[in-house]
Structures are given as structure tokens and as C-alpha cells.
Amino acid sequence: MTLVAILSGAGISTDSGIPDYRGPQGVWRKDPEAEKLVTYEYYMSDPEIRRRSWQMRRTGPALSAKPNAAHVAVAEFERTPGVSLRVLTQNVDGLHQLAGMPPRKVLELHGSARSVVCVRCHARSSMADALARVEAGEDDPACEKCGGVLKSATVMFGENLDPVVLGEALGISKACEVFIAVGTSLQVQPAASLAGVAAEHGARLIVVNAEPTPYDELAEEVVREPIGTALPALLKRLG
Length: 239
Ligand code: ZN
Fold this sequence. Notes:
Blueprint: E1 2-8, H1 27-30, H2 32-36, H3 40-45, H4 47-59, H5 69-77, E2 83-89, H6 95-98, E3 106-108, E4 111-118, E5 124-126, H7 127-135, E6 150-154, H8 163-175, E7 178-182, H9 191-200, E8 204-208, E9 221-223, H10 227-238
Parallel strand pairs: 1-2, 1-7, 2-3, 7-8, 8-9
Antiparallel strand pairs: 4-5, 4-6
The protein binds zinc ion.
């Protein structure tokens, strides 16, 4: 079995109508008021920020988006005989799983926008249920078990990544034979370090991204074509 890791960033989901929120050029970084809605300290200390955050989640594209050709190609590649695929994603949209990737083979480095979590008792439940409560008139729905503050199960600014998820991602990056970075600028952690670790440990590094990345020189192959066509072609060739 050949262990292949695909690291995906915002660029794989733009064809699904989800803009880059978190990246250096992302929506949130360019708009300080919007960034407050996803910054842990503001979110926890200010109920008005939470009310606006729920409205943003209610109207945002994350839950209604559909997987595109690149997500589908990744899920099909997972079924290639002789290939063991793991997806490490910076995205919180769950589109890899919706396209057919087995959830246990997808590591969500920044969490999932499809779930909510209580900051006090850590109970998880579905975002759709929480948004239904917002629709029904609760402007800042609290945890139904303990009354604690509910937040999206994503890693907000000011929060640490889950060390278990990160450790697993590092292990895969060290062990894989092929590491494909798709739609990520490789400029923010942990994405950058994962690509570096993979290259240091002898993986063939392939970069598929519209813009140059700091790892292009280490890459065996750099693809600048649109992801929606380039990634399916690349995976077909590798398969
Ligand atoms: Zn709770």
C-alpha cells in the first residue's frame, strides 16, 4: 500500500461557493469587525458578538455548499487499489466527507462548522439544530445540557488546534510517500510545517495552487492550473 496524504486548503472549496475566510488574504483577516466574530476572546466576553456570529452562520454558505469535482476526485482516489489515502484539511466545510471520503480518513485541522460544542461541558451537537433554534427566535442559543456558551466546533482565532489531531497529522506527514498540497498558500501553520515535515521525511511533494508557495522549490511537481480540473487529472495519473 502506498500512503498518500492530501492537505487541502480554502482553494479546493472556492468552486463550491465558499470564499477563503481564514488565509492571509482571507475575508476575516481583511475585515477586523468580521474577525471579532471568530475570535475566542470577543466571542466569549460579548453576547452581541455571539448574536452577530449566529446570524453570520445562519446566512453563510458553509452548510448549503455542495462538493465540487475536486472533492469527488479525492473521494474516488481513496478507492484506488493499493492506495491508502488520508486527507488533512484546513477547511471546516465537511465537503470531503460529503463527497464520499470516509470520515475516519479525514483530519479536520480547524474543526468542523457542521457541529457546535459547549465551552463548559464540551457536549457536541449539530450546527443545523442550533441554527434551527436561532431561526425559532433564540438569538444566542445556550447548551441544552448545562446552559454554557455554544460555539461552532471550529478553531477560532485565539484558540489552539486540537493536539491529538495535530499529532496524527504530523505522523501521517512523516510516514506518507506522496504529499499533495491543494489550494493552500502553505504560509500559515500548521499547513506549512506539515508540508515541510513530509518533504524532510522523503515524501514526494506535489503542490497544486494558483499562487506560488514557499514550498514550490522542494516540490517534485507544481501545478498552477485550476484545481477543479487539475486535481482530478493529477489523481487519475497517480492512480
Ligand atoms: Zn454544556
